[in-house]
Write a structure and sequence with these properties.
heterodimer; A: 57% helix; globular; B: alpha/beta; 11 helices
């Protein structure tokens, strides 16, 4: 994105996917692990989650989807996965390797 | 005739008419098209950019469905005892704030020296911090630093300084020094990246690549090759320092491509050839031209990168690059317009 002071938040709100509030981290992981362009990455994640591409950035839908699949939430609710435990579920759902998860398993 | 608030390249808030803004947009895209021999923005794209620039709202965003992924550089690099933002939090807490308060798509850990050479000496503690962060966070975490070839030349490093040799007419010696510095830099980049990957990092960010010219860029490409051979699954993001690669050496080639003077879409191609996963073009902002001129120019360059490669392109849009005004704290009215235009006209994969 570029040097952060005073403007990274602006980009996050103006064009960002929404991070763990929605499916931003999941789409990012497909770009990073499979080198997918944005449209392909969104479609892949949407298909795996069973939602529309539009809903990938819809907080109302994605909060429920993240709860259902236990993919990590903005609020650390009791009984739901946090940190590396959530990444274990993400790796399984997206069928990708996540480096730290792989190392934890081995 | 009505006028609109418009930022200048230095961030000054001015007013321009729609006709003046359109003229600047057309001139900006033509400037990039002629310099890099790429196609300018179409009439429809110019019209849409004019609409973005003249929207009365201070803050604007993409249309639903046009959201893109955000990667970062240098977000969480300041230590607790010396926070440049004045907020005394540790870097591991910083990443968690980035994830759960800002809700960014990815995050990054880095050291305040932000150079692979400097990190080499304390990589063990960087591994510890990375490991700690990864246990507690969900978003992908990059480790970022600069190749920074300048640190390998005297008085900071072991190699005689090319900037001192060149004025003496010692061109051959200056080139040899840069080649020697490259070898040191490659070793450091590979060493640090390997150690952070061992600690679990999701990706490596070679940031501000090419800041010391073509040798700086070639060192990064070679380090990328080595790392991808060892760890094919490792994500490597290569972000540039500026739009046209400086030929400080002048005779360096990568797979037959001369690196000196390489335009952004040419840089994207060699990054893809080296095995880079994400490419980040950096288009310079001219402070004496308007933001519409700069943004049109940056969009023209950036879109050529997107069309040139199959890997994701994440444009650099920090202060002074990508159409963002050159000031320490860029205004959200300018930054949000850049964000929207990059996603919807530049067709980029991320920022």
């Amino acid at each position: 994105m570029g040097d952060p002071f005073g403007m990274a938040v602006t980009h996050a709100l103006a064009s960002g996917m929404g991070g763990i509030r929605t499916a931003g981290d999941l789409v990012a992981r497909m770009q990073m692990s499979r080198g997918m362009k944005i449209d392909a990455a969104k479609k892949y994640v949407a298909d795996r989650l069973g939602v529309s591409v539009i809903d990938l950035a819809n907080e109302d839908v994605m909060t429920e989807v993240r709860r259902e699949h236990d993919l990590g939430l903005v609020y650390a609710l009791p009984g739901y996965a946090r940190g590396i435990e959530a990444k274990l579920h993400i790796a399984r759902l997206l069928d990708i390797e996540i480096n730290c998860v792989k190392r934890m398993r081995t | 005739m009505g006028s609109y608030f418009v930022r200048m390249g230095d961030g000054f808030l001015d007013r321009m008419t729609a006709e003046e803004i359109r003229a600047d947009i057309e001139a900006g895209t033509q400037d990039a098209a002629e310099k890099a021999k790429i196609k300018p923005l179409s009439q429809a794209e110019i019209d849409y950019l004019l609409e973005i620039c003249t929207t009365p709202a201070k803050f604007i965003g993409v249309e639903r469905g046009n959201e893109i992924v955000l990667t970062t550089d240098g977000v969480v690099v300041t230590p607790e005892e010396e926070p440049s933002s004045g907020v005394p939090v540790s870097r591991s807490v910083g990443v968690q704030i980035w994830e759960r308060i800002v809700c960014a798509d990815t995050s990054e850990l880095g050291h305040s020296d932000y150079s692979y050479k400097a990190v080499k000496a304390l990589v063990s503690s960087e591994q510890q911090v990375m490991h700690d962060i990864l246990l507690n966070t969900v978003v992908p975490v990059f480790y970022g630093a600069m190749p920074n070839l300048g640190l390998y030349t005297q008085p900071d490093g072991p190699v005689p300084n090319p900037a001192e040799l060149l004025p003496q007419g010692k061109i051959k010696e200056a080139r040899e020094c840069q080649e020697q510095a490259m070898e040191y830099a490659i070793k450091d980049m590979v060493y640090v990246a390997e150690r952070l990957y061992e600690a679990g990092a999701d990706a490596i960010n070679f940031d501000t690549t090419g800041a010391a010219g073509d040798a700086d860029f070639l060192a990064t490409l070679r380090a990328t090759e080595i790392l991808k051979q060892k760890f094919p699954e490792l994500c490597i993001m290569i972000g540039m320092a500026g739009e046209t690669l400086l030929g400080m050496h002048g005779e360096l080639y990568y797979q037959g491509v001369c690196l000196a003077g390489l335009p952004p879409h040419g840089q994207a191609k060699v990054v893809q050839s080296a095995g880079g996963t994400i490419f980040g073009p950096a288009i310079n902002t001219k402070t004496n031209r308007s933001m519409p001129w700069n943004l049109a120019r940056a969009l023209t360059y950036t879109r050529a990168c997107v069309e040139a490669v199959d890997i994701p392109v994440h444009a650099n849009v920090g202060m002074g690059v990508g159409g963002v005004p050159m000031q320490e704290i860029p205004a959200p009215d300018a930054v949000s317009r850049v964000s929207k235009a990059m996603a919807e006209i530049g067709k980029i994969d991320g920022l």
